[in-house]
Design goal:
alpha/beta; Rossmann fold; 2 domains; 6-stranded parallel sheet; 10 helices; 8 strands
Length: about 260
């Protein structure tokens, strides 16, 4: 990896680094960057604690409703579905903003509303999430704020989700699932994928409503996917959608009803 970065620096390219390993702490890369006049951006580098925010309760004054796009595991397409929903809602006349919470969301973001969830000390995660939402609401006055989810409620390597429901007070959830994946997303450990019903029950306990289930089609052919979609819709009593294959316009209709 570092050899590719060295080549890019020699070619005069600025580097946007989303890894936990900071390039600015590697003297030979810093020296090479200075020689070529390029910039190294370590976007996961924590900000000074003086610049971070504790949760204050200001979220209770936010006018715009929040919907969290959460997942049953890591790397199931939460960010992509969130962006598609934001674009579709805006096209439908619902003024919608997205709060990014990961490094790729930061790189794709049109505005500065969000933060990198896993680069913050834990004490400040809820406050930074709240601060991003409050600023977005005050400066943009959106009809809807979508929250890009991270990890999942039950992946032990990085459980994330309660903050979106508790600290951000999101009352709606779009839950993304990858039915072709049978074990949770780890490097070295194999644990079975928890049953979706458990996630739905946890979301309900936190006081939020799951509006729809969205499926990632990775590893499945179209016939398998459609059978699985119908089976989930029947067993869970929820509308189930295939964003990549069929778009998200039908979900926008559900969101419109949620906003009434």
């Amino acid at each position: 990896m570092l050899s590719f970065i060295e080549e890019a620096i020699k070619a005069g390219l600025d580097i946007v680094n989303g890894l936990h390993e900071f390039l600015e702490e590697k003297p030979h890369l810093l020296e090479a960057a200075c020689r070529r006049g390029v910039k190294l951006h370590d976007i996961r580098k924590p900000r000074s604690k003086m610049d971070l925010h504790f949760w204050s309760g200001e979220i209770t004054r936010v006018r715009a409703p929040r919907i969290a796009v959460m997942g049953t595991d890591c790397a199931v397409g939460k960010r992509t579905t969130t962006r598609w929903l934001m674009e579709a809602c805006n096209q439908a006349g619902i003024k919608t903003e997205m709060i990014f919470t990961g490094q790729t969301g930061w790189m794709q973001s049109r505005h500065d509303y969000g933060f990198l969830f896993d680069s913050n000390p834990n004490d400040f995660v809820s406050g930074e999430l709240e601060y991003a939402i409050v600023r977005c609401d005050q400066e943009c006055s959106p009809d809807l704020i979508l929250l890009e989810g991270q990890s999942s409620l039950r992946n032990p390597s990085g459980p994330c989700g309660s903050e979106f429901l508790c600290s951000a007070m999101a009352k709606g959830v779009i839950l993304q699932h990858l039915p072709g994946r049978k074990t949770l997303h780890f490097n070295n450990v194999s644990l079975p994928m928890p049953d979706i019903q458990g996630d739905l029950e946890l979301i309900k306990i936190y006081g939020a409503q799951t509006l729809a289930l969205t499926l990632n089609s990775e590893g499945l052919d179209s016939a398998e996917l459609e059978d699985i979609r119908i089976a989930y819709q029947t067993s869970l009593g929820l509308p189930v959608f295939l964003p990549k294959e069929n778009g998200v316009e039908e979900i926008v209709s559900i969101i419109s009803q949620f906003l009434i």
